[in-house]
Amino acid sequence: MNKVMLTGRLTKDPEIRYTQGGAEPLARARYSLAVRRARRVEGEPDADFIFCVAFGKQAEFAEKYLKKGMLIAVSGRLSVYALDDQSGQKRWYTDVIVDDHEFLESKAAFENRAASSGGYGGDSYRASAPAQQQKPQDSASDFASIPESIDDDDLPF
After folding, report:
1. In the CATH hierarchy, which top-level class contains the domain 1-84+91-104?
2. To pair with 5 at 20 to 30 A between CA atoms, which of 58, 78, 102, 138?
3. pLDDT of residue 136
4. Where does residue 113 rank: exposed (0-12), middle (13-18), buried (19+ CB within 10 A)?
5. Interval 93-126: pLDDT, tens
6. Where are the domains of the chain?
7. Helix/strand/coil percent split, the chain, to 5
8. In the 8-state DSSP scheme, what is residue 12?
9. What residues have CB less than 8 Å from 108, skipping those under 6 apart?
10. Please, where are the H alpha helices in 9-147?
């Protein structure tokens, strides 16, 4: 079974392209997620940067709603392929082909974090984490809440 599930923050806005062939253009979105990993050795990076590719309706969704710095969950399948570089050497690449995206923070929380940091960069997450640990509100706009039992060190980035 080839199934991948990731949680991470977008490192930049998705890049969108449309195919030129065929009866109808097909959207393709490509973006990378910074996915936290357990640090085993001091000085070792604590995140992996994983490329994701979405097609069709999922790509159109990414174009319309996904922005740099957003915390999302992605499910899909792993795709490994090889291409020849300019010198003729074979290079191997790995992408996650996206089946589904899910928001893991409310739009209001994302916009508040972005406004308080002056942008959508990942460094702002730690600074705004205490505000996101408040008790969840009964609002249809909230997608997920962070339990109060999680402290800043358990939050990604």
Report:
1. mainly beta
2. 138
3. 40
4. buried
5. 999 999 999 999 888 888 887 777 665 444 433 3
6. 1-84+91-104, 106-157
7. 20, 35, 40
8. S
9. 141, 142
10. 56-65, 107-117, 124-132
